[in-house]
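user: can you give me the structure for this one chain? tokens are fine.
assistant: on it. calling the predictor now.
[tool input]
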Amino acid sequence: MIDLSTRSAQPSSDLLPSELLQLRDLVQTQPAGVRAELEPLLDDVLEHALFRGRILSVARDALERLRLDLDMALFDLDATRREREALRELLGDRN
């Protein structure tokens, strides 16, 4: 869980939507009784938002890797075709 009372600036706040950061700041300005009720709920919301952000980051990285692998495979296929055609021409010249 994220402890809102001891953490004034989160290093991962760039992964959180600005609305949630504003809500966190607003909850911290509330009286202690209200804060005691809302902080556990807000902790869960922030934790889920961070988790979704990490999942999206992993998915983007995987997609980027897949695109790179596809580009490398297409390049290799094209090179293999050129080599095959060059070999066919070379063997055709010998006949």
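assistant: here you go. The chain has two helices and no strands. The chain has one domain: 13-94.
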